[in-house]
Design a protein that fits this description.
The chain has about 300 residues and is of the alpha+beta class. It has helices at about 1-15, 55-60, 95-120, 125, 135-165, 175-210, 230, 240-265, 280-300; strands at about 20-25, 25-35, 40-45, 50-55, 70-80, 80-90, 90-95, 170-175, 265-270, 275. Helix 5 runs antiparallel to helix 6 and helix 5 runs parallel beside helix 8.
């Protein structure tokens, strides 16, 4: 009697749509190919090549971000003799906090050592001191931001090569907001130097033709650099709001991105191409406002400011 019930249940299930497909455990493999219409994916693991059909539209759309050579963890179900992809995720290599901090510090040390050698051992002056022998806001912000960006890139490349091999060297992309904030940093440095040199040249020309006894304001060099006073005050020793805003915003962007890259390096995705974490639009806008306020102040104030 029991056998009859099983036969009836089997027959009813088949008539109503077939035996439910059986989901398999996730398996790891390297993507070999993805069809142009994203309806079929081929991957290879230790057991050889296997081909998966893709039926879910959202899954098809997600495959646009995958490339041949990516290491993936896939979950499939068997539909008759056909293997259907139901989920795909990148394989990741976890790192511990000591590894992340160590690699980032080593990357920063390599960058500083290279700068030290190329600057003829005058590291502080190259990175932070302006021509007037004071700490330069524009130099400090571009040095800090360039440092954290390149350190992040080196650390990401190292971990990808260490866990994934030579095929994963490079292809670490910079997202839009990160590229924009880096461009703003470089632009501020260049424009700031242009404003200073233009004002200095104009002051020198004015001094050369000034009548005797007329004093023309000129940019004078400090006896010695003073940190952090040079970054917060003008040449007369007065607190400068524009300089203060720029330093605060630069420090904020620097700190936030360090935290982001630290978290990003916690799980290294073994994909042919990855993208560094992006900065949010609020931080980008604030950074831009700070740089703009600094340059405006620099353009409209006296040469000694």
């Amino acid at each position: 009697m029991t056998s009859v019930r099983y036969v009836c249940l089997f027959t009813a299930t088949a008539l109503l749509g077939g035996i439910p497909a059986r989901a398999q455990s996730p398996r790891e493999g390297t993507l070999e190919s993805i069809s142009a219409d994203h309806t079929q994916v081929a991957a290879r693991d230790a057991n050889g090549l296997f081909i998966m059909s893709v039926e879910d539209q959202a899954l098809k759309d997600s495959l646009k971000d995958w490339n041949k050579g990516d290491k993936a963890k896939v979950t499939v179900r068997m539909s008759g003799s056909k293997m259907v992809l139901i989920d795909i995720a990148p394989q990741v290599a976890p790192t511990d906090p000591i590894q992340r901090i160590g690699v980032m510090l080593a990357a920063a040390a390599v960058l500083l050592a290279l700068t030290f050698i190329l600057s003829w051992k005058n590291l502080r002056r190259v990175l932070f001191i302006g021509q007037d022998n004071r700490y330069s806001n524009s130099k400090c912000q571009i040095s800090l931001w360039f440092g954290v960006l390149i350190t992040s890139y080196i650390a990401a490349v190292f971990f990808r090569a260490w866990y994934g091999g030579g095929a994963f060297i490079g292809n670490v992309n910079i997202p839009a907001h990160l590229a924009e904030i880096s461009g703003l940093s470089a632009l501020t440095f260049a424009v700031s130097k242009g404003i200073t040199q233009s004002k200095a040249a104009a002051a020198s020309a004015a001094a050369a033709i000034a009548p005797a006894g007329v004093v023309v304001p000129t940019k004078t060099a400090a006896a010695a650099p003073s940190f952090p006073s040079d970054l917060l005050k003008d040449d007369s020793g007065n607190f400068d709001l524009g300089d203060f805003q720029m330093i605060v915003i630069t420090a904020l962007a620097f700190t936030v991105y360090l935290v982001q890259i630290y978290q990003f390096l916690a799980a290294i995705q073994l994909r042919v191409a990855v993208t560094l974490p992006d900065v949010d639009s609020t931080l980008l806008a604030t950074f831009g406002l700070g740089q703009g306020a600094y340059l405006t102040k620099k353009a409209v104030t006296d040469i000694k400011q």
